[in-house]
Amino acid sequence: MSRKKNPFLSLSFRLVATVFCVLLLLSYVSALIDPGIFPPAGFFGLYFIPVLAVNVLLLIIALLRWSSSVWIPVIALLPSFFFLGFFFRAGDRNSLPDRVVAETEGLRLLTWNVGGFRSGDGCAAEESLAGVVELIERESPDVVSLQEFRADDAAELGRMFPGYPYIRRHFYRLRSGDCVGNLTLSRLPLRGDGYLPFRGTTNMVLYTDIEYGDGVFRLYNVHLESNNISLASLIKEIRGGYDEFSQELAEAHEKVKKSSSRRGGQVRALLENISECGLPAVICGDVNDTPMSYCFRTLYRGRRDTFCEAGKGFGATYRILWPLLRIDYVFVPEESQVLEHRTLRTGWSDHYPVLVKVHM
Predict the structure, then answer these.
(1) Residue 217's closest CA among 335, 346, 90, 55?
(2) Is residue 206 classed as helix, strand or coil in its secondary structure?
(3) What SS3 state is found at 230?
(4) Is the dihedral angle over the CA atoms 13, 19, 23, 29 positive or is it negative?
(5) 3-class SS at 62?
(6) If you ran DSSP here, which 8-state letter would residue 4 be given?
(7) Could you tell me which residues come within 8 angstroms of residue 233 by beta carbon, excluding any fewer than 6 positions away?
(8) Rounded to an integer, what is the distance from CA 95 to the centroid of its chain?
(9) With 0-12 CB in 10 A as exposed, 13-18 as middle and 19+ as buried, what is 162?
(10) 166-208: per-residue pLDDT in tens?
């Protein structure tokens, strides 16, 4: 004898499924909307993975209950197959053996937000700095792009990185007296450099024109507007009760709204510089937005995302919420061949470094 379904539970399930279906559909659309024009678009892309997971759970529940509402999560999930490759890849497109990758000529580039050496696994800033220097020496890339690099004395950079004769930086001096900003190290000769400052923030873009082969390309070391959300504060307020958490969450949303709007303008300024310089552009660094965002889609258009070309497994680069957030990228000219993309799992920062090899 079949068990009679509770109409209230069925109606409640359909309502919940519909809400999360709409949220996921809005996540898909958000990548096409400039948050500078419509700020709420920044939220939906940020919540893509959690909302996707809820829809998968609802699909499983619907199948187990033989619910007639199973079509709702199915509709929500179908478009996700076009986007999951930006977050996870079962294998790379090239499928090149390690020997072939090692023997093929190409530019090796490492990008890493080092978090001011204050975001590691509870270790001192000096220890985090030593870990960053050691990793760079071990991997020995041709070009290194660092964000949130903190230094007491910028003149010591040459001593820290003796293997890189060409060093370019743009630092801001903090109230503590420390200098923090973007740093580019290169073994290849440089022809020029500059930076794009953004009003009211220490986020910026440092660019360098680098000789490579018979030509020159422009490397953009980017650090776009941060969301400035304290996960520790959110966790603390959860323990404090609903009122405290809801207030903290509302403040976090307001910060995301403001920062998403700023990033849209920063991306437009970056693309304007690329258009004016006339050189092939390599864009790398901390974009502070997921692949389900206007910023990512705009930077990706007409370029190759190295993770999509040669990445494996989860592409997430933000260590604390791994594997939810992929916010650090390398974009190369469309005619380039991406030979390698690795996300290095290390604990010296709240971000993971990304190492790529590209034949341009």
Answers:
(1) 335
(2) strand
(3) coil
(4) positive
(5) helix
(6) P
(7) 248
(8) 24
(9) exposed
(10) 999 999 888 777 889 999 999 999 999 999 989 888 899 999 9
Q: Count of residues for the chain?
A: 360
Q: Which CATH number fits domain 89-359: 2.60.120.280, 3.60.10.10, 1.10.10.10, 3.40.50.140?
A: 3.60.10.10
DSSP summary character for residue 136 = H
Sign of CA dihedral 231, 235, 236, 240: positive
Q: Is 207 helix (H, G, I), strand (E, B) or coil?
A: strand
Q: What residue ranges do the domains of the chain occupy?
A: 7-82, 89-359
Long-range contacts of 50-53 (CB under 8 A, 24+ apart): 50/324, 51/20, 51/23, 51/24, 51/27, 52/24, 52/27, 52/77, 52/80
Whether the ω angle into residue 141 lies within 30 degrees of 0, i.e. cis, is no
Neighbouring-strand partners of residue 281: 218
In angstroms, rounded to a whole number, what is the distance separating the alpha carbons of residues 42 and 51?
14
Please, are residues 267 and 297 in contact by the beta-carbon 8 Å criterion?
no
pLDDT tens-digit series, residues 270-323: 999 999 999 999 999 999 999 999 999 999 999 999 999 999 999 999 988 788
Burial annotation 14-38 (CB, 10 A radius, 16+ → b, else e): eeebeebbebbebbbebbebbbbee
Q: How far is the C-alpha of 333 from the C-alpha of 359, rounded, in Å?
A: 10
Closest to 327 measured CA to CA, from 349, 304, 295: 295
CB burial class (10 A; 0-12, 13-18, 19+) of residue 196?
middle
For residue 189, how many other CB atoms are within 10 A of its CB? Answer: 12
Q: Could you please report the per-residue DSSP string of 74-126?
A: HHHHGGGGGTGGGTEESS-SS---HHHHHHS--EEEEEEE-GGG-SSSS--HH
